[in-house]
Amino acid sequence: MATNGTTAGHCSLMKATSNGAFQGENPLDYALPLAILQICLVLVLTRILAFLLRPLRQPRVIAEIVGGILLGPSALGRNEKYLNAIFPARSHTVLDTLANLGLLFFLFLVGLELDLKSLRRTGKKALSIALAGISLPFILGIGTSFALRSTISKGVDEAPFLVFMGVALSITAFPVLARILAELKLLTTDIGRMAMSAAAVNDVAAWILLALAIALSGTGSSPLVSLWVFLCGFGFVLCCTVIVPPIFKWMAHRCPEGEPVDELYVCGTLAAVLAAGFVTDLIGIHALFGAFVIGVLVPKEGPFAAAMVEKVEDLVSGLLLPLYFVSSGLKTDIATIQGLQSWGLLVLVIITACFGKIAGTVSASVLCKVPFQDALALGFLMNTKGLVELIVLNIGKDRKVLNDQTFAILVLMAVFTTFLTTPLVMAIYKPGKRMSKADNKHKTIERKDTNSQLRILTCFNSTRNIPSMINLIEASRGTEKKEGLCVYAMHLMELSERSSAILMVHKARKNGLPFWNKGKEPNSDRFVVAFETFGQLSRVSVRPMTAISAMSSMHEDICTSAERKRAAMIILPFHKHQRLDGELETTRNEFRWVNKRVLEQAPCSVGILVDRGLGGTTHISASNVCSNITVLFFGGHDDREALAYGSRMAEHPGISLTIIRFLPDLEINSDGNGFGCSTDEHFLMEFQKKISNDSSISYEERVVRNSSETIEAIQEFSRCNLFLVGRMPESELTDKLNAKSDCPELGPVGSLLTSPEFSTSASVLVVQQYTNHPNPRSVMPFKTVSETPDGDIESV
After folding, report:
1. CA 715 to chain centre
2. What gap in Å lies between CA 632 and CA 729, rounded to an integer?
């Protein structure tokens, strides 16, 4: 008792700041410098662990939980000097306060992730899977609690212990699951959609059960106290549901798209989160519930929710939240698990948790006619634990429902089950092997049957790319007699290190395939609206998609999607955009390396669009299209593909096509026309037969002796709207161009047309034709470029 009193005395006398080491004071005896050191130590250790675990594709929460355990009495804390200096008992109050403040706002973000409208529309299949995935582990958790109470948890209150054990084993971590699905590129697939829907239902059910457990674990002697706590908590949720949404809708209505959210609304929302936390703490549930309820009630439509995430997330998840993991780690002492009985109970808890969640999910999935392999993968995904699990365990520890040994066992169970999720899903579920067996007969635009459907995968990473991409699609749609044009518009989104799932999950739902809300409500995503509107107006089949991945693996998403959709061409935006003065400047250099890898690994032809305002900044309707397109033909596979694409564009009534074929002067160049002469001649003869009666297409041959004459001839057509060129022409004429460029992905002609020395306002589409046996000339330029370490992002 004396020790507790002394500790309390030190806590009350602990000042915030010191006078400094020169005044003979130890900064670690004061709250602020000690808290700063603790935060820095936690951040460094968790980031190092996250980096080390990245090759295993583990979510960051694993590194944070393990980091907290290492800093606690299980590892480094075994050294008494370290523990008393860095994490003394007198600092725990400040540490826990900061950690719970961070957790309060994080639970607000978790609430923002849950869209009640989508939850109400959850299909019977996902709802059945969720309920089965909760019920069986909850029942098994109650069964396990009897084994624990008779051995290591003697004397604890029965009712709250049963509920806490049931909740601990039945939870699925919604944010962690979203992260894992995104890492595995399953977020926009059927199994990803089902997992996220089931996890959302699971999340809500877990919070309701946890509220019940907290109400039951009260210290009041009368059972009526628990009943009052639960009823008051229910009344609080009911009042918030009536009062809060109209206020937030009014705020969201006054925050137009594209405009910054008023600071008053941000402060008001954060104050509401704190106030709700205070009320629920007053009731006796927990401050976290109030924050979670406010987050759920914030409207998800419009920019307001995303703005709140932008304002709060980085500070909370990056700085304050890791403190909760170390606070939890200080309570976790693995050394308490001693003897064969304790380790046997750990194995029992892990097996029970895994079996309950996986068996419940798999059985319900199979009954819902989900393929067994998909059902098994879904079971492993639903077995993901995370921060919510730690919250449950810490509340149980604070309420004296869980003792040190039970707490340590359950923390290790959470780490183990989450750690296994990614490798097990990768081993079992291989979507690459489940692709359609139908072979893509048309991997190029150049083909014998020109009346067959043309499939194009267009990629964009910002709104700046959309008008030109749409105008290019408009020009590519051909005649209505043909089978038509099918376009897959893929939005390239970077998967950041942010822990919150809102920025990717909601965009994936709105902008991905399959659509979660298809046919239920108008889609508010401007990317989708732009392409769908164009599709309806031009009668082109446009299907929006989303690729959410790290920059190092984004090319895999693009290439895999092109193969699955049987695309003939992938069109990528160039990583530079035009400034007002006409110069091209780099937007994000990482997209250059995405383009580079797509060129190397694409299962079809590839085009890189250097945009100089093709058709202006808006979509041009079919009747108003009036464009001049020039194809520069030197010879080879890529040039034939560029000409085949140009020929398709020329079918549009508003487009005139000019083909310039460059021939070397045979008196000077004794080697002839270069590579692939006979193939080029045959291709051009067939092409000239087709266009003999077409006045919108003109064909011209130019004999040039050197690079200067080649450049002069090209300069004559600089007033056109679009240049179509092959990436690696097979001609000695292009070998002598020597255009200075740091972008070999454009090839010699593309580099010339985008160089500052060449004056033109025309956009450029650089085309690479797919071939089963790549031309070695097309690979060489990449090997000669010096790839800077900060520019290239190596895949891990």
Report:
1. 43
2. 10
**211 three-state secondary structure:** helix
The CATH number linked to 555 is 3.40.50.12370
Give residue-wise pLDDT tens across range 281-324.
999 888 989 999 999 898 877 778 878 887 888 888 888 888 89
| pLDDT of residue 347 exceeding 90 | yes
In-domain check, residue 398 = yes
Element (H, E) at 290: helix 287-297
Residue 738: pLDDT band with limits 50, 70, 90: low
Q: For the domain that residue 218 is a member of, what is the CATH number?
A: 1.20.1530.20
Return d(Cα 246, Cα 360) in angstroms, integer.
39
* Alpha carbon distance 726, 639 (integer Å): 4
- Token pair in block for residue 154: 């003697």
Pull the structure tokens for residue 293: 């309820």
Whether residue 208 is found in the same domain as residue 297: yes
Cα torsion 341, 344, 350, 351 to 10°: value is: -130
Statement to judge: residues 473 and 557 lie in one domain: yes
Closest alpha carbon to 280 in 184, 207, 355: 207
Can you tell me the distance from the alpha carbon of 503 to that of 113, in angstroms, rounded to the nearest whole number?
9
Closest by alpha carbon to 60, among 40, 71, 46? 46
> How large is the angle between the packed helices 372-382 and 339-367, nearest 10 degrees?
140
Contacts of 243 (CB under 8 A, 6+ apart): none
Nearest Cα to Cα of residue 188 among 523, 544, 527? 544
- Let me know if residue 97 belongs to a domain: no
Query: Which of these three, 428, 463, 495, is where a domain ends?
Result: 428
User: In the structure encoding, which two tokens stand for residue 573, read together?
Assistant: 């935006």
Structure tokens at 749: 């002609």
> What phi, psi does 585 have (nearest 5°)?
-125, 150
Q: Averaged over 629-640, what is the pLDDT?
A: 90
- Angle of CA points 634, 638, 642, to nearest 5°: 85
Judge whether residue 33 has pLDDT over 50. yes
- 170 plus 290 within the same structural domain: yes
| Closest by CA position to 490, among listed 569, 402, 584 | 569
Q: How many domains does the chain have?
A: 2
Taking each helix axis from N to C end, the angle separating 304-315 and 92-113, rounded to the nearest 10 degrees, works out to 150
Helix (H, G, I), strand (E, B) or coil at 768: strand
Residue 166 belongs to a domain = yes
Report CA-CA distances (Å) from 333 to 44, 338, 347, 394, 405: 22, 11, 17, 13, 8
Range among 344-358, 381-395, 719-733 with highest mean pLDDT value? 344-358
- Nearest CA-CA partner of 333 in 263, 241, 259, 403: 403
In three-state secondary structure terms, 764 is strand
> Is residue 406 one of the residues assigned to a domain?
yes
Q: Do 462 and 372 share a domain, yes or no? A: no
The tokens describing 542, both together, are 């446009």
Strand partners for 570: 457, 606
What is the model's pTM?
0.72
Same domain, 406 and 269: yes
Say whether both 423 and 499 belong to one domain. Answer: no
β-pairing, 763-768 vs 627-633, is: unpaired
Nearest partner of 94 among 43, 150, 29, judged by Cα? 29
d(CA 512, CA 544): 7
* φ, ψ of residue 704 in degrees (nearest 5): -125, 150
**Boundaries of domain holding 688:** 454-511+522-665+677-772
Closest of 417, 405, 233 to residue 335, by C-alpha: 405
Q: Is the domain of 407 the same as that of 467?
A: no
Closest CA to 383 of 127, 171, 66, 132: 171
β-bridge mates for residue 547, sequence order: 492
pLDDT band, residue 8 (cuts 50/70/90): very low
Query: Are residue 592 and residue 709 in the same domain, yes or no?
Result: yes
Distance CA 467, CA 523 (A): 19
